[in-house]
Amino acid sequence: MSPDSRASTTPLTRRRTLAALAGATLAAATAPAAAAESDGRHRPRTIRFATFNSYLNRGAEGQLLADLEGGADPQIQAVAEIIQRVDPDVLLLNEFDYVPAGAAVRLLQRNYLRTGHHGAPGVHFPYFYAGPVNTGVPSGVDLDGKNGAVTEPGSDAYGQDAYGYGFFPGQYGMAVLSKYPLDLHRMRSFRTFRWADMPGNRIPADYYSPQALEVLRLSSKSHWDIPVRLGGGRTVHLLASHPTPPAFDGPEQRNHRRNYDEVRLWADYIAGGRQAAYLYDDAGRRGGLARGARFVIAGDQNSDPYDGDGSDAIRQLLASPRLHPLAEPPASSGGVEAAKDQGGANAGHRGDPRYDTADFADSGNNAPGNLRVDYVLPSRGLTPAGNGVFWPDSGDDLRRLVGDGYPVVSSDHRLVWQDVRW
Predict the structure, then answer these.
(1) Sheet holding 223-231, edge to edge
(2) Residue-wise pLDDT tens digits, 70-95
(3) Per-residue DSSP letters for 185-237?
(4) Do residues 51 and 299 make contact, with C-beta atoms less than 8 angstroms apart?
(5) CATH number for the domain including 236?
């Protein structure tokens, strides 16, 4: 279908087709079936990877659990229906508050995802991972050099002194949900990797104290390499992250610089060899991804290749020869319509609004406008099939799930998906 075509709004079935994906613009000329099953002897035909900054973060610890427990929160219902409409096989959720033992993921599945919404059938992910992140975890050091080390959660001052900005431990966390087994014994986490240990890092000079540099971690949330087992000995590594926004800082540009180096970590990791030799994971294992390994990089990278702050960050990753050169990035018709109708900063953008994935503020001080910041990037060795951004235009009934800016209906980001074949 052409980039300007909309898919049908008929409810999805379990054995979905690309043409049944409502509201998303498709960047594929054909609509192959996306069978999720594999009996171990045959290769799965198509696997759908997706990323969604789901806005499932709350301002107080325990609030997300309370909202999930009730089963009737309208924002979570909208998020769940979007997931059901797209029906991914492997899904990364950003801005999903971390709760130990996977309690939040279990409630999301039980009370929202398994229950169909407005004709969209329920979905179930038998496998998931929700691990600890750096956001809201106290560093024990006065990172911003303003008021001593603030160790009591619940304030901006506390967030500034946490390893990653957050009012409480786990705020703005991540979770991976999958219909395929996750090889958690072989996964790698780079949550504790120190920023100062990255050669040629962009740490701002004379901003952090020696004590701060000694403990400051690079990942504002975490970087995860989670092997996804597709059967028949085939594995795809999901490389999941959510770098800090390159904003909300001063002339030192500490967040802009950190965003660049957080994105760089994946560029070095997939390059492997000597370029990744400096990396060490939380278990002490060094080096990058093995040569020939298939992977998908997913997440809200908070970097647009053309507009907003931090465009240089994502360009270093998109230029990697290990990525598959997509003929067409995920796109939508809703993004085009939103940029035109909302105007403001969007009028000066260089990037094509078809590829926008986030509906940000359009006017006011430092308003970025709508940007492409969420990515699902397959490696060479995987064949891209259909893809899209779930951003229905005003002629589609499913526009109700994304709304028109503020107040937010589901999220200020859009779910992005990419189908791949082995």
Answers:
(1) 188-189, 223-231, 234-241, 294-300, 374-378
(2) 899 999 999 999 999 999 999 999 99
(3) TS-EE-TT-BGGGSTT--PPTTTS-HHHHHH-BS-SS-EEEEEEEEETTEEEE
(4) yes
(5) 3.60.10.10
Q: What is the pLDDT of residue 44?
A: 55
Read off the amino acid at residue 291: R
Considering its fold, how many domains does the chain have in total? Answer: 1
| Residue 119 lies inside a defined structural domain of this protein | yes
Q: How many C-beta atoms lie closer than 10 Å to residue 251's C-beta?
A: 7
Which residue in 145, 173, 179, 177 sits closest to 161, CA to CA? 145
Domain span holding position 55: 45-135+170-421
Following DSSP, what letter does each residue of 233-294 receive, concatenated?
TEEEEEEEE-PPPS-S--TT-HHHHHHHHHHHHHHHHHH-GGGGTT-B-TTS-BS-PPTT-E
Q: Which of 268, 135, 140 minimizes the C-alpha distance to 191?
A: 135
Sites in the chain below the pLDDT cut of 50: 1-43
pLDDT at 30: 23
Q: What pairing do the DSSP bridges indicate for beta strands 90-96 and 47-56? A: parallel
Instruction: Please state, in angstroms and rounded to a whole number, the distance separating the CA atoms of residues 98 and 402.
Output: 24
Please report the pLDDT score of residue 366 as a whole number: 86
> Which residues share a beta bridge with 399?
none
pLDDT at 187: 98
Residue 91 in contact with residue 52, Cβ under 8 Å? Answer: yes
Structural domain contains residue 388: yes
Tokens representing residue 103 in the block? 């309690």
Run of H or E including 174: strand 174-178
The answer to the question of residue 275 being in a domain is: yes
pLDDT value of residue 309: 84
Distance CA 369, CA 352 (A): 13
Please tell me the predicted confidence (pLDDT) of residue 14. 35
Q: What is the pLDDT of residue 310?
A: 79
Q: Is 158 a member of any domain?
A: no
Residue type, 362: D
CA neighbours closer than 13 Å in the CB half-sphere of residue 231: 14
CA distances in angstroms from 177 to 2, 137, 221, 357, listed in the order given? 30, 24, 17, 21
pLDDT at res. 99: 97
Vertex 353, ends 349 and 358: CA angle to 5°? 95
Using the structure block, give the residue that is written with the tokens 């971390």. 98
